[in-house]
Specification:
Among the domains are: about 60 residues, no CATH class; about 110 residues, Beta Barrel (OB fold (Dihydrolipoamide Acetyltransferase, E2P)), CATH 2.40.50; about 160 residues, Rossmann fold; about 160 residues, 3-Layer(aba) Sandwich (Rossmann fold), CATH 3.40.50.300. The protein is globular and about 95 Å long. The strands form 4 sheets. A 7-stranded mixed beta sheet has the order 6-7-4-3-2-5-8. It is about 40% helix and about 20% strand. It has about 700 residues and is α/β, with parallel strands linked by helices. Helix 20 links the parallel strand 21 and strand 22. Adenosine-5'-diphosphate (ADP) binds next to helix 12. Adenosine-5'-diphosphate binds next to helix 12.
């Protein structure tokens, strides 16, 4: 097709400037809403609906009946009622009579700008009878600019269930509605069905184009209740289809891995493992035993393990990981443990090394620090197979790194890595078994979309003797109180962490802030104690020395940037004081708090926050104060921030959800998952003619994003 021909042919990819009502300025504003093409607009559904289907004259209004009317504002203004109470009242008139409309909660200048003398407006709500004079009035009506000239023709703003879209400053809802109407009228006939008949019938889903039509402009008899709860079949269908494609991609990937990838079937519970268990100073918890049993079953298969292990901070994931690593070594393979930060890699290395020495196993630390020569020597020992266990950071998945015989990789605290990176480590050597561990329990719905192609195990029991942690929020002017309480703990011989935030854009400034805190503590507050500063810019040896000193109790207060966020295990530390707590994510705060309460002492987490907290900021910090349960906190995080931003998943391959909502629509998510996996079971390559459209759709929408390009 020549480009000229093409320009005459309508397509769902058409940019919005083709749409009547969408001038250059509005096109810019729409872009802010992530609406650039016709298809984007079709999937930009209303988040709410106003029932303005009943239109009456003012004289016909009756109390308690949901209704809309139009009228002219003939009086308006603020009325004071006593000292602190105010009321905004207007009188509205049409050719049949007049009515008072009232607002008790309002912004004065906003109302004065909106409800002006002489203006023709639409009002919707339920009229009530005034108790004193018996007259009809309407409290807190919805109101919109009047229908104007449009009134005689079919109006989008009255006489129907009116869609309410999320908009942006400068883009009036009326204009947005008009654009949407033009998009739906002009293009909806191009929307093709791709869901299999069978599914449409089973769930009584409407066709795709009717669903889109209805969701934007529902006919007057549509149940507003269903609409508002996103339970209307049209909405359910659109939510389902969005989840279904993602689940189909995941099912496809999983199936593809099963068919094409071969790993090594390990013998488990061998001599090394038996000896290792003898070295342990504690008994495994029931959950640790169960999870290890699950892992062993996976490892005994030739199909490579692809397992996500969820276990809250302190549930004892390290032992599980080490058992898996040692199983690989017992099978003459190399094993790798990848951590998100240098410090955590170092700590893992230091923790694991004594076991390796006792068992006669060679272990190496591979990070990005050290001279080029040192690093190259380490790489040599890894590639010639001298090194049996490697602990490291993402240095492990760099191109230069080659293993001679990698049999298993453990990735600790996966959420800090991009989802795609988990695949990179799988690419080294014959497909290794992969165990991904996360201490930030991911809400089930998110796990199903992010990791839906993996198996999941749960470490849901804490080792015995876990001590209470009291969490308290202090505003900045009460900082002294927090430090006073910290001092009481150090008097008893406990140790404390003081954490300062790190914002990557300005590392120098952050470091300066941490240094200031350190100097204040050492010179003014606690001159008799040993205070030490640790941060990411220190040399590896220095950091290791500091952590060793802290562990041995030679340091009382460790001032740190977030390098200590995960994995650090110092049982005698009983205080975690976090400066500028509002700058941290919930997952991070939960992790930081997980550094204490590990010994036999009651522990304290003090959050210091600035006064100008936003409502979200307050809600987030309160979630931490209220709960120590990682799952509850993760759900709260998802609720406050939305999935796009959850734990930095925005950059990590989380598909954008336009219609579906991971909290609201979990049932449909699970349904779509069942259907998608069943379909791939039946038609693994999507070759059946009835699935042809589905295959194309999958390719178009998620091919790039979910790494399907090469395999589908
Ligand atoms: P996670 O990585 O899951 O946050 P760790 O593996 O660091 O937790 O374990 C937390 C602490 O609990 C460590 O001090 C570890 O030695 C200890 N631990 C682990 N398993 C047990 C157990 N079964 N009994 C007693 N202590 C345990
Ligand atoms: Mg850990």
């Amino acid at each position: 097709m020549s480009s000229k021909q093409k320009s005459f042919k309508k397509s769902l990819d058409d940019p919005l400037q083709f749409i009547k009502g969408a001038g250059p300025k509005r096109v810019m504003l729409l872009k802010k809403l992530q609406i650039e093409s016709v298809a984007d607009a079709l999937y930009f559904l209303p988040f709410r609906y106003d029932d303005r289907s009943q239109v009456k004259k003012i004289a016909e209004l009756v109390p308690g009946e949901m209704v809309s009317f139009t009228g002219k504002v003939i009086d308006a203004g603020t009325i004071r009622m006593g000292r602190n109470r105010k009321l905004f009242e207007a009188v509205v008139q049409d050719d049949s009579g007049f009515i008072r409309v009232k607002w008790f909660h309002f912004n004065e200048s906003y109302m004065a700008g909106k409800i002006k003398l002489g203006n023709e407006r639409i009002f919707s709500g339920k009229p009530t009878q005034n108790k004193r004079d018996g007259g009809l009035e309407m409290i807190h009506p919805d109101t919109d600019t009047g229908p104007g000239d449009d009134f005689s023709t079919e109006s989008l703003d009255i006489g129907r269930i009116v869609p309410v879209y999320r908009s942006t400053e400068g883009l009036h809802l009326k204009a947005l509605r008009t654009i949407m109407k033009n998009v739906v009228d002009g293009y909806n006939h191009l929307v093709e069905e791709f869901l299999p008949e069978e599914i449409l019938n089973r769930y009584k889903f409407p066709k795709r184009s009717s669903a889109i039509q209805l969701a934007h402009f529902p006919p007057a008899d549509t149940s507003i209740d269903l609409l508002e709860n996103f339970q209307h079949p049209a909405q359910r269908r659109l939510i389902f289809e969005e989840f279904f494609l993602i689940q189909l991609a995941l099912a496809f990937k999983k199936r593809h891995q099963q068919i094409t990838e071969r790993g090594r079937a390990f013998k488990t519970r061998g001599e090394i493992i038996r000896n290792f268990f003898k070295l342990l100073l504690f008994d495994l918890t029931g959950a640790q035993k169960r999870v290890l049993g699950e892992i062993m079953t996976y490892l005994e298969k030739e199909e490579p393990m692809n397992l996500l292990l969820q276990g809250d901070v302190g549930t004892g994931k390290t032992v599980v990981a080490l058992t898996a690593l040692l199983t690989a070594v017992d099978n003459d393979c190399q094993a790798a443990l990848m951590a998100p930060t240098e410090l955590l890699a170092e700590q893992h290395f230091l923790n694991i090394r004594p076991f390796c020495s006792a068992l006669g196993i060679t272990i190496e630390l591979a990070t990005s620090t050290g001279t080029a020569k040192e690093k190259s020597l380490i790489r040599d020992r890894i590639s010639d197979g001298t090194t049996q266990i490697v602990v490291g950071t993402h240095a492990l998945i760099q191109k230069k790194m080659e293993f001679s015989n990698l049999g298993l990789a453990v990735v600790d605290e996966q959420h800090r890595f991009g989802v795609l990176q988990r695949e990179a480590i799988g690419k080294k050597g014959l497909v290794p078994h992969v165990l991904i561990m996360t201490a930030t329990p991911i809400p089930r719905s998110l796990a199903l979309t992010l990791y839906g192609d993996m198996n999941v195990s749960f470490l849901d029991e804490f080792p015995p003797g876990r001590k209470d942690i009291e969490t308290r929020l202090f505003y900045e002017n009460k900082r002294d109180n927090a430090y006073h309480l910290l001092g009481k703990e150090t008097e008893q011989g406990r140790q404390a962490f003081v954490v300062c935030p790190l914002i990557e854009e300005s590392e120098a400034i952050d470091l300066k802030a941490a240094i200031d805190v350190f100097e204040e503590l050492q010179n003014q507050r606690f001159p008799d104690l040993k205070v030490q500063l640790i941060h990411g810019k220190l040399k590896k040896e220095e950091r290791q020395q500091i952590m060793a000193d802290f562990k041995e109790g030679k340091i009382d207060i460790l001032v740190a940037t977030t390098v200590i966020e995960v994995g650090i295990d110092i049982p005698n530390a009983s205080v975690m004081l976090i400066e500028h707590a509002e700058r941290f994510g919930l997952a991070q705060l939960h992790q930081l708090r997980g550094r204490i309460g590990r010994g036999t002492h009651a522990s304290y987490c003090f959050l210091i926050a600035c006064h100008a907290l936003t409502n979200d900021g307050k809600a987030r910090l309160n979630a931490i104060v209220k709960s120590r349960d990682g799952f509850a906190i993760a759900e709260e995080d998802l609720r406050i921030r939305g999935p796009g931003d959850f734990m930095g998943t925005r950059q990590s391959g989380m598909p954008l959800l336009r219609v579906a909502n991971l909290l609201r629509d979990i049932k449909l998510l699970e349904l779509s998952r069942l259907e998608a996996f069943a379909l791939i079971e039946k038609d693994p390559q999507l070759e059946l003619p009835e699935n042809a459209k589905l295959k194309i759709m999958l390719h178009q929408t998620l091919g790039d994003q979910m790494g399907l390009m090469k395999i589908i």
